[in-house]
Design a protein that fits this description.
The structure is a single chain. The chain has 16 helices and no strands. By secondary structure, it is an all-alpha fold. Helix 10 packs antiparallel against helix 11, helix 11 runs antiparallel to helix 12 and helix 13 runs antiparallel to helix 14.
Length: about 280
C-alpha cells in the first residue's frame, strides 16, 4: 500500500497524472451551465499552453468560445482537430457546432452521430442530430431521434418530436393535396404534444379548413381562441371558417373586423379582395 501511494505521489509531482485538471474542467462546465462561458474561456485559455493536444480541454474551450460569441477563436481550436477520429465527446460536439456555423450540415450530422455514440444519454448530441436532420429535410429520421430523447428529457423531446411531425406535414402538403388526411393526422399529433403552441394549432386549423372539415376547425378554434387577447385571431379565423363554408357575407364582415383591429393585416385584405371578385 505504501509503495502504491509513493508511486502515485511521484506521478502527480512529475506530471504523469495531472492534479487539478479534472477540477479545472469541472469549474469550466459549471460556468458554462450558468451561462458564464466568457469566464469559462478565460479560465481554460491559459491552461491550453500547458496541456497541448488535450482533446477534453480543447473541446470544452472551443464550445465556450462559441457560446461567448468568439466564433473565429473556436474555429481556430477546431482546426487543430479537423481530422480527429478518437473518442473525445467534446471534440466531436465542437466539430459539429463549427460545421453548423459554416453551413455544412452533412459534416455536422456526421460529428453529432459520432458524439452520440460516445455517451450513454447523449442529450446534446441527440438534439444536435434532430436539428441537423430537420435542416436536411429528413424529418422521419429526426422523429426517431426525438422519440429517443423523450426518455431523457420529456419536455424537450416532445417539443422536438412535434417539430418533426409538423415538418413532415409541411412536406406532404407541398407535394399533393391528396395527402391532406395524412397532413391533418400529423398536425393533430403535434397539437396533442404541444397543446399551447399557437403556431401548431393554426397549422392544424388551416389543414382542416383545406380539407373541408369546417365544423372540426371551428370547434378547435373556439376552444383555443376564447380569451380577450385573441380577438384579432378569433376574427380572422372566423372569417376563414365562413369563407370555407361559402358564407361570403359573414366572411367579409369578419375580415373587416380584422382590419379594424389591424389595418395592415395583409391576408385579411387579400381575402376581402377575393370575396369581392365573387360578389
Amino acid at each position: 500500500m505504501a509503495a502504491a501511494l509513493l508511486i502515485l505521489l511521484c506521478l502527480l509531482q512529475t506530471g504523469g497524472l495531472s492534479a487539478g485538471q479534472d477540477e479545472l474542467l469541472d469549474q469550466a462546465r459549471v460556468l458554462r451551465r450558468a451561462g458564464r462561458s466568457g469566464e469559462a474561456a478565460r479560465l481554460l485559455g491559459p491552461a491550453r499552453a500547458a496541456r497541448p493536444g488535450d482533446p477534453e480541454l480543447d473541446g470544452l474551450l472551443g464550445l465556450v468560445l462559441l457560446d461567448a460569441g468568439r466564433a473565429d477563436d473556436a474555429v481556430a481550436v477546431a482546426r487543430d482537430w479537423a481530422r480527429y477520429d478518437g473518442d473525445c465527446y467534446r471534440i466531436h460536439v465542437l466539430l459539429a457546432r463549427v460545421a453548423e456555423r459554416n453551413g455544412d450540415d452533412r459534416a455536422a450530422l456526421a460529428s453529432w452521430r459520432r458524439a452520440g455514440g460516445l455517451k450513454q444519454a447523449p442529450i446534446e448530441a441527440l438534439v444536435g442530430q434532430i436539428n441537423t436532420l430537420l435542416r436536411l429535410d429528413k424529418p422521419i429520421a429526426a422523429q426517431k431521434k426525438a422519440e429517443l430523447l423523450i426518455a431523457h428529457q420529456p419536455a424537450l423531446g416532445q417539443r422536438l418530436l412535434a417539430e418533426t411531425l409538423v415538418k413532415q406535414g409541411e412536406g406532404l402538403q407541398a407535394l399533393d393535396m391528396a395527402q391532406l388526411g395524412s397532413v391533418i393526422k400529423l398536425y393533430r399529433q403535434a397539437h396533442e404534444l404541444l397543446p399551447d403552441d399557437r403556431a401548431v394549432l393554426l397549422r392544424l386549423a388551416d389543414a382542416l379548413l383545406r380539407g373541408a372539415r369546417i365544423d372540426e376547425a371551428r370547434e378547435l378554434l373556439q376552444a383555443q381562441l376564447s380569451a380577450p387577447p385573441d380577438a384579432l385571431q378569433r376574427a380572422f379565423w372566423s372569417g376563414r371558417c365562413f369563407e370555407a363554408d361559402r358564407d361570403h357575407e359573414r366572411a367579409r364582415e369578419a375580415y373587416l373586423s380584422v382590419l379594424e383591429l389591424e389595418p395592415s393585416h395583409a391576408e385579411a385584405s387579400v381575402r376581402l379582395a377575393r370575396i369581392a371578385l365573387h360578389a
